[in-house]
Amino acid sequence: MMRLLGSDLACTRGGREVFSGLGFTVGSGQALIVSGPNGAGKSSLLRLVAGLVHMTGGRLALEGGDSELTVGEQAHYLGHLDALKPALSVRENLAFWTQFLGGSQAAAEPALTAVGLGAIAHLPAAYLSAGQRRRLSIARLIAVKRPLWLLDEPTSALDAAAQAALATLMAGHLAEGGLILAATHGPIGLEHAGQLRLGPTPGPLAPSSGDRP
């Protein structure tokens, strides 16, 4: 069993305090939805957990995880940018990320199939639509197993069918004991997710009855 624990977290960017005194807990098989107005710090919180933003206060730990690795090294971060090389094919892009993240190349092809890109794996990424680029980024979550998924507006650019497919992938990850921390302005298909509202007085709310599409 794992538990992502954030206690009294503080973040300052560009000389401005983004948030402070922030606390939350996410256990194995659980998801936490981070919501709030623009500028409240949703993306900053996810980037902080991923190790991409400096934590100016508090404690962050993945209890039950690998003690030799940082929290970020045990997480997948899906941000606003898809981080693809346009000149490389769909297959080559995923192969690069799979190798970079320490996964098995054998898992790349099934991941492309799972996100509906198997038939165009030979095409350069430059030809992909915004939704297809997003799906290629999501394929990284499947190709390389990591317990913690950090998802920043994961349904951005996805059509209804792709959103439903993502919801299925997230449910499968949770069923295997994974953890999800997701920042979003709207429902993304995570049922029974807890809620963390950021704003003037950030803090956790009671788990909702469901974050339903």
Describe the structure.
By secondary structure, this protein is α/β, with parallel strands linked by helices. Helix content is about 25%, strand content about 25%. It contains five helices and nine strands; from the N terminus they run βββαββαααβαβββ. The chain has a six-stranded mixed sheet, sandwiched between helices. Strands 2-1-4 form a three-stranded antiparallel sheet, covered by helices on one side. Helix 2 packs parallel to helix 4 and helix 3 crosses helix 4. The relative contact order is 0.20. The C terminus is likely disordered.
Summarize this structure briefly.
The protein has 213 residues and is α/β, with parallel strands linked by helices. The protein is 27% helix and 26% strand. The strands form 2 sheets. It has a 6-stranded mixed β-sheet with strand order 5-6-7-3-8-9, sandwiched between helices. The protein has a 3-stranded antiparallel β-sheet with strand order 2-1-4, covered by helices on one side.
